[in-house]
Amino acid sequence: MTYSPISIRQITLNRLNMKLNAPFTTSFGTFQDKEFYIIEVEDEEGNIGFGESVAFSSPWYSEETVKTNKHIMEDFLIPLLFEAPIHHPDEVSERFQPIRKNNMAKAGLEGAVWDLYAKRQKLPLYKALGGNKEQIDVGISIGLQPTVKGLLQLVESHVESGYKRIKLKIKPGSDYDMLKEVRREFPNIPMMADANSAYTLSDIETLKKLDEFNLTMIEQPLSHDDIIDHAKLQQQLGTPICLDESIHSLEDARKAIELGSCRIINIKIGRVGGLTEAKRIHDYCLMKGIPVWCGGMLEAGIGRAHNIALTSLNQFILPGDTAASASYWERDIIDPEVIVDKGVIHIPQKFGIGYDINREALDYYCVEKNVFQESNYKVET
Ligand code: OSB
Ligand code: MG
Predict the structure, then answer these.
(1) Is residue 122 among the annotated active site residues?
(2) 230, 147: one domain
(3) Residue 79 domain-assigned?
(4) How confident is the model at residue 380 (pLDDT cuts 50, 70, 90)?
(5) How far apart are CA 321 and CA 315, in angstroms?
(6) How far is the centre of ligand 1, averaged over its atoms, from the C-alpha of 373 (Å)?
């Protein structure tokens, strides 16, 4: 394989604002639109890699926001990328290591370097990561709905279009009765629930009753920063617990698995600081026999493409949340958009993330652009 270090010459931060087709409600709040960064990393030959930073505008899901992403990328991470050439994308997370946390800011830049690397190697990103699936099974996450009737209609339409599992958001007061109605209408579909940290151990009786519904898992029932109480809860539940918010690294995954805090892990590239760390968690879970799946952050096309590539790895045995572009956006920023055919995404074979960038759409949604040049960061000699 050809091999030459990547010299990054220019990095562009595009801030985009896109309106969701429909509001998306979780136990912690409602999203109407999404503001985020699309990151372009350009090398000495003019190749460009693309990344998407997935933080939201408000620190509800995690402490990072669109603004903290900008601060950390601009003032700390971008200068580190300009410091020296990069031989392999795995070096990026190492180089970012002195900067604590801020995983979504790190992952946005690292993802762009992975895309650039794959393009230089003339490989689709999924192959550069070591994946070998041709297609992946996907599910869909449905937000909290104002009425059960409306929810049942949504579930029906997604089941009919072939999604491989349905994820329903729950919170106290919108859990047992709601799930019971959905289960009655759809006795056999693979179904799971995501609480986004809305419960405490004092709700254990409610959570135990959910065992009735044969859910494939319950995602993050307890606090975003807990693994102790989740272990206590898992001992009392028949339904497997899946951790989302609590897992930020391979170390977090190891501790949660050792404690018995979960039986399944949701891997989100942004939450764990990039594809390299996501792959390490995947490899560890493969060794431990823990199934993983790829979570979502209401991404636009570039983030979605990274999720698809990651999901090509073998231990992603459960369908993830990477649904079709059209379920979120009137028009996505990639060409073609992500299409789901009977619950399946065919992994694109083009080099890098596998999708072209729709520049016209990107410019349409772009509200601010900042360009950083390596020549301005050169140490004077
Ligand atoms: O917990 O997975 C989550 C959306 C926003 C914030 C957190 C979550 C979600 C979802 C939807 O469940 C994921 C998606 O469809 O991209
Ligand atoms: Mg979740």
Answers:
(1) no
(2) yes
(3) yes
(4) low
(5) 16
(6) 34
Question: Which of 196, 245, 332 maximizes ligand 1 atoms within 8 Å of its Cβ, making it the mutation to test the pocket?
Answer: 196
Residue 146, exposed/middle/buried by CB under 10 A (0-12, 13-18, 19+)?
exposed
Tokens 């419960």, residue located: 199
Q: Which atom of ligand 1 is nearest to the CA of 244?
A: 1
Query: Which residue owns the Cα nearest ligand 1 atom 12?
Result: 141
Q: Residue 140 CA: which ligand 1 atom is closest?
A: 15
DSSP state of 203: G
By residue range, what is the domain housing residue 162?
127-357
- At 346 the pLDDT is 98
Report the distance separating Cα 199 and Cα 174, nearest Å.
Answer: 12
Q: Looking at the domain assignment, is residue 2 inside a domain?
A: no
CA quadruple 265, 270, 275, 277: dihedral positive or negative? negative
Question: DSSP code of 212?
Answer: G
- Does 176 fall in a domain? yes
CA–CA separation, 140 vs 77, rounded Å?
33
The pTM (predicted TM-score) of the whole model is 0.97
Give the mean model confidence (pLDDT) for residues 6-24.
98
Tell me: do 208 and 231 sit in the same domain: yes
